[in-house]
Specification:
The chain has 230 residues and is α/β, with parallel strands linked by helices. It contains eight helices and six strands, in the order H-E-H-H-E-E-H-H-E-H-E-H-E-H. It has a six-stranded mixed beta sheet, sandwiched between helices. The longest helix has 17 residues. The relative contact order is 0.19. The N terminus and C terminus are likely disordered.
């Protein structure tokens, strides 16, 4: 029933069937607060979420594909691509993306948490994205910015006005991180923070987040950027 409803809604989408509907950047925290076991839970969790049937359903419910880019981040100078832009036009492409992320290895451990610079890297990545109707950045992490300009400053300095920014917080004992993401990180119509109850819950939280944001674009819940005749 859900798939049928999404397919019906997709037929009303204003863009051409061959167009990319969403460019999605996924940022993974590898700062010093993330140990080796937690890092592996993130990589395998993201891969598992991409393989989840309801995520695939949300991706392929529209004839217009989604483009995905994934990177790891920590300090001011630590941003590394895990999977470059891939147009997810069929299940094989989605499976290959999940496999690539699952096989990826941590390139190092940054001692600081530079969310602002992670957003700056995501902005640069979007410059090379396929031509998509919408652009979304997802930043996942377990702490607040403690190096370089904060996310609010970066958002003010860069042309990110028409980019939706969502967050995934890996919650610990300090619930203030959730408030920080809500107040400082996310932006845009329908932007939200998903919360994982520790790293063991990362895969489930990522799956919920992906379904929510992909379904919003399928159903037309978010308007196109101003000037987009889509």
């Amino acid at each position: 029933m859900v798939r049928a409803a999404l397919l019906a809604a997709a037929l009303l989408w204003a863009g051409p069937a061959s167009a990319c509907r969403l460019a999605l950047v996924l940022g993974m925290d590898v700062s010093v607060s993330v140990d080796a076991a937690e890092d592996r839970l993130q990589r395998e969790g993201l891969a598992a979420a991409l393989r989840a049937p309801d995520v695939a359903e949300a991706i392929f419910a529209s004839p217009a594909p989604v483009a995905i880019y994934a990177f790891e981040w920590s300090g001011v100078t630590h941003q590394r691509i895990l999977a470059n832009w891939t147009l997810i036009s069929d299940p094989a492409a989605l499976s290959a993306m999940a496999d690539r992320i699952a096989r990826s290895q941590r390139s190092g451990t940054g001692r600081t948490t530079a969310i602002g610079y992670a957003l700056a890297h995501a902005h640069l990545a979007l410059q090379d994205a396929p031509d998509c109707q919408f652009q979304t950045i997802d930043i996942a992490g377990d702490g607040t910015n403690n190096a370089g300009p904060g996310p609010r400053g970066i958002k003010s300095a860069l042309p990110l006005d028409w980019v939706t920014i969502n967050g995934l917080v890996i919650a610990g004992e300090d619930a203030s991180v959730i408030d920080y993401y809500q107040q400082e990180v996310i932006q845009g119509p329908g932007a939200f923070v998903e919360v994982a109850d520790g790293y063991a819950d990362y895969a489930a939280a990522m799956r919920r987040k992906l379904v929510r944001e992909l379904s919003a674009h399928i159903l037309g819940a978010l308007p196109p950027p101003p000037g987009d005749n889509g």
